[in-house]
Amino acid sequence: MRILPPIFHQLHGTLLLVTVLFVTSLTSSGYAQFLDQTVDSKIPAKLDSTYLKGIRYLVRSQDDNGAWKSQDSTYGGNPGVVGLAVMAITAHGDDPNSGPYAQSVQRAVQFIIDEQNESTGMIGDRMYDHGFATTALAEVYGMVDNDKIGPALQKAVDLLVSSQSKNRRGGWRYDPGTTDSADTSIVGCCMVALYAARNAGIEVPDEAIEKGLKYLSTVRTPEGGYGYTSATSPNPTRTAIGHLAFSLARDRKTEGYDEGLEYLKKNLKFRDRNYAFYFEYYMSQALFHADEKVWEEWNANNITYLTTIQLADGSWASDKGTTFSTSGALLSLALNYRFLPIYER
């Protein structure tokens, strides 16, 4: 059974019933349809089989407590990685409350909530964990039947805002108490979390978004790339992160936006060997929100690439662990389904 994107949950009465029947009729044919494109635009069979193999790997390898630590000691017990896995599973569009992967999703969501510090709102030990976990809570808020998600999400957003307010650069670093430094990777992670929370109906101050974008503009190089802590040594992974933040702000007229897209277009065949699947995760989103035709070119190649390197058990592997790698790979493909709110144009 497929679920509808959150926007449809706001509809009532006959219109909702007609919409549900219409979407059900599309998916019953054996194909998943793009809800924001024509009915003839079908998910490639190769993609769906690849994606399902990845989901089934995650479900099989999950611990009873909702994490993946016993099968993946690298990062499988980190709430941020668990958050990525939650998004990867729900991005396929199956009902998270009664569908085939409902128990897996609900266990993982509860794990994230249990990992939150009740007094500070921090999820995990580092802002990477907090950012990805917050995004996951925002994406499933109103989708998963768990009344603890809303309060946990609010606390997580409050922590993001208060941490940023103490940071002189207007961003975030590994520790929420850091005041004198920030970096593109963590800032991007936290910015996406704020956008996702705002989409979910949580109040996010405009100032927080503006300060985050201002920081990212300070690390953008003249050729449109993004550095790590300064406007030097850009690479495609960081550029995808920075460019996505401006796209999600619907700020395409900002200085450097066009140059950033051109930088990414020149690197469509790039693969980050040091941060495999982290690059794919961000590159797919950055291109999807910036230029549909460019994303289509990237997407076709990305499907072929990821299908080719997927392991027999349905996972993807890297030195970051199979949970992170598999989740990142799946989320880079999930734009084809577009069931996650953050993946809506």
Account of the protein in words:
This protein folds into two domains: 1-42, no CATH class; 47-343, Glycosyltransferase, CATH 1.50.10. It has 345 residues and is an all-alpha fold. Mean pLDDT is 89; it is low at 1-40. The protein is 53% helix and 0% strand. Helix 3 (79-90) runs antiparallel to helix 4 and helix 5 (127-140) runs antiparallel to helix 6. It has 13 helices and no strands.
How would you concisely characterize the structure shown here?
The protein has 345 residues and is mostly helical.
pLDDT < 50 stretches = 1-40
Oligomer: single chain
Spell the H/E element sequence.
HHHHHHHHHHHHH
Sketch the major β-sheet.
none
Number of alpha- plus pi-helical segments: 13
Q: Shape, please?
A: globular
The CATH class of the largest domain = Mainly Alpha
Helix content estimate: 40-55%
The assigned structural class equals mainly alpha
Whole-number mean pLDDT: 89
**CATH fold description of the largest domain:** Glycosyltransferase
Rg, rounded, reads: 19 Å
End-to-end separation? 24 Å
Strand elements, count: 0
